[in-house]
Design brief:
alpha/beta; two-stranded parallel ribbon
Length: 268
């Protein structure tokens, strides 16, 4: 599940309030590429009597395949993932600056930049800042059109390497699973069994997110057979972003019992 700390639409307070109201017993909040907010979310939930697993969904790349990796079981304060994230943020910022300069050389003018990006010193620090400038200055009506302009100016995704991410998780005492391997939309890599064999031959992943709202029953059955055959961990997820169609989903704990017990949670 995600909050406004990454790309969710609910604040942590709103998400926790909903989960408590609906009687969830244990949850994982895995904001994208954020470990600095984990303890804040956990403390907030603890005050309402709801245990929250430490977790993060990392944006990674393997052989140019964009792949999200779910990481659990590490100490948010000391995890080596902090170094991985810091390196990616630095490279993303440098790339944002390069693309912004390209836009200006091509004749794009942003006279309201100082006003719109006052909190960032008047210069774009990340992708969404540049998107905001394009929309507010009338160059694009919305995010998709702004992204078209940025891609023409050289914009591309910068993610962590999957192998480096998994190594950092393991050295921090945690586990790493491929998130929603069965998603087929643009921007996601669909992992069939053949591709799973390839990636696992190079990267020591611990398992898969088998249950996901975008996985068909046939896909779930296929992944269940795969994780059982290879003695891998499996997780269940709603991938909730706090809006219609992406609400939190309850799963029985026994489904992911091996993962939970690996994380120190006993399932009765």
């Amino acid at each position: 599940m995600h909050t406004t700390y990454s790309d969710g639409r609910w604040t942590a307070e709103q998400l926790i309030a909903y989960l408590v109201q609906e009687g969830f017993a244990l949850v994982a909040v895995t904001d994208h590429d954020r470990v600095d907010t984990i303890n804040t979310v956990r403390q907030l939930a603890a005050s309402r009597g709801l245990p929250v697993l430490a977790g993060v969904e990392m944006s990674t790349t393997w052989r140019n395949h964009p792949t999200h990796v779910l990481c659990y079981g590490f100490d948010p304060e000391t995890t080596l993932l902090r170094e991985v994230i810091a390196d990616v943020k630095r490279r993303q910022h440098e790339h944002t600056c390069e693309v912004y300069e390209t836009l200006k050389r091509r004749g794009y003018n942003f006279p309201r930049a100082a006003e719109l990006l006052a909190a960032s010193g008047g210069e774009p620090q990340q992708l969404r800042d540049t998107v905001l400038l394009l929309i507010e200055h009338g160059y694009a009506p919305d995010w998709p059109h702004a992204m078209e302009i940025l891609r023409e100016a050289g914009q591309h995704s910068i993610h962590a390497e999957m192998a480096a991410t998994v190594e950092a998780v393991h050295r921090s005492g945690g586990v790493a699973l491929i998130a929603h391997p069965g998603r087929r939309e643009r921007g996601f890599t669909f992992y069939d069994t053949a591709l799973l064999e390839e990636v696992r031959a190079e990267v020591p992943l611990d398992g898969l997110e088998v249950y996901h709202p975008y996985h068909s029953p046939e896909t779930i059955e296929s992944y269940l057979a795969y994780v059982n055959k290879h003695d891998l961990l499996l997780s269940t997820g709603s991938d909730s972003h706090g809006h219609a169609g992406r609400m939190p989903i309850k799963y029985r704990a026994e489904i992911s019992q091996r993962l939970l017990e690996r994380l120190g949670v006993q399932v009765g």
